[in-house]
Amino acid sequence: MTSRPRSTVLLASLSLVLGLTAAAAADTADPLTTDLDRLLGDPRLASSAVGLVVRDADTGDALYRRSGHTRFQPGSTAKIVTSAVALDGLGPDHRWRTDLATTAAVQGDELAGDLYLRGTGDPTMLAQDYDALAAQLAATGVRTVRGELVADDTWFDSVPLATGWAWDDEPHYYSAQTSALTFAPDTDYDSGAVAVRVSPGAAGGPPQVTVTPPVALDIRNTATTTAGGGGVQVNREHGGNVVHVSGSIAPGAAAQAAYISVDDPTTLVAGLFRASLAAKGITVTGGTGFRATPAAARVLATRQSMPLRELLVPFLKLSNNMHGEVLIKTLGRKFHGQGTWPAGIRALESLLPGLGADPLTMNLFDGSGLSRMNVLSPDLLAQVLRSARAKPWFRSWYDALPVAGRWDRMEGGTLRGRMAGTAAAGNLHAKTGTLTGITGLAGYVTNADGRELVFSLMFNNFVSGVPRDIEDAIAVRLASDRAGQSQPGARARHRDAPGTAPKVGPGTGSDPVRDLECSWTKSC
């Protein structure tokens, strides 16, 4: 009989021990951990960066943690940090003012000098709000301004776009320029953007094009009104306000709307307001100037925005990027006397410890999450979510987060079409975040035992279609969790046919339109 070498015996014994240990661990593993591990083991996430932190909202106990300290690009989940810090630093009742002011005397029905239109970044200014300011001035009896109309946007600096934004995003409404004097097309308050509506014209002729608000853009309309129209495209040239309308629309078809950003909102505001003055019977004899309002100027008329606690709804529900940037520059102005991104980020970092988070563990360059240079960790978001619960403004903030499975857009927001009919519907309040190769979900959910949880989930660097179904499956698993009970059926459902391997790799397994979050396409 030949004896085996001692090394072979030792290896066999070690393998037996390890096998028994693994089996014992499997028998004692927490069911929630087992199910979450299974979900995060989806082949589409292979070689991707994956982070998930789940904590008891009251005690802070960790129920699950993977790559909690790792820094990820957050996308729009960064708005959790921006909004919470802004509520702490500016207060939930903060409002933005837009003033008409002058240093000149009023002589009869004439203002004998310059009229200043001074903004502080109000993202909710609509065309009718500028009309209302003109009406206030007209109510004082002024009919002629013997001077310039001066547009004062100096509350913020002149840098229109944040560091790390993509140049090819500039024409899109979600990547608009930030200015202290701006406008929005409607009550979604996409500041710095216009709605271009294209309606059918006479058969064979060009369609009709209208712009809201009616600012002075150079519209180049080469579209046609043609039976079976294939759709119209609206594009703004880089670096200016030349807008091309092309394609075709069928006679009798419904109007098509496209939302685009504009170049130099301040100049367009000045033109819009000059038209408002004229409509109210007020003539400005001088040209248009651009400079600061003198300190000695007196206010003739004013308009205040809604309070921040109300602005949170379109900001968070619809993931409005421009609101995040206004908040950052407003923080910079309040705490450092400079309406700039660097000053605003310094203010944010100084306030972040008040939310239990360490600013040295992150790097932000904007307030919306649009910059590809932003990095922060799941742990940081989970800590902010926990600490926010003790703040006096928490209820307004919590209610402003998107709610899973609620179809009303100002309730469900970016989660309106997700997780309907599950334990997460009407329960989960969370912020979404999506960029190419990036998706995240972070917020609150109450499990089947009535235990409130905070969670932060981040996926970076995947090359498949957006694994949003995995996010949803994890959220539903948290919502339906009951201590000690496994849910072996918990798995992500993806678009590939049953029994086939998920498609991965550049250009495969992905639908570019369907993969876009609804906030990118104005479909929520």
TrEMBL record:
Molecular-function annotations in GO: serine-type D-Ala-D-Ala carboxypeptidase activity
SUPFAM superfamilies reported for this sequence: beta-lactamase/transpeptidase-like (SSF56601)
Keywords: Carboxypeptidase, Hydrolase, Protease, Signal
PANTHER family xrefs: D-ALANYL-D-ALANINE CARBOXYPEPTIDASE (PTHR30023), PENICILLIN-SENSITIVE CARBOXYPEPTIDASE A (PTHR30023:SF0)
E.C. code: 3.4.16.4
Alphabetical list of InterPro entries matching this protein: Beta-lactam/transpept-like, Peptidase_S13
EC category name: hydrolase
Gene3D superfamilies: D-Ala-D-Ala carboxypeptidase C, peptidase S13, DD-peptidase/beta-lactamase superfamily
The protein, known as: D-alanyl-D-alanine carboxypeptidase/D-alanyl-D-alanine-endopeptidase
Residues annotated as signal peptide: 1-25
Keyword Protease: yes
Pfam family, one: Peptidase_S13
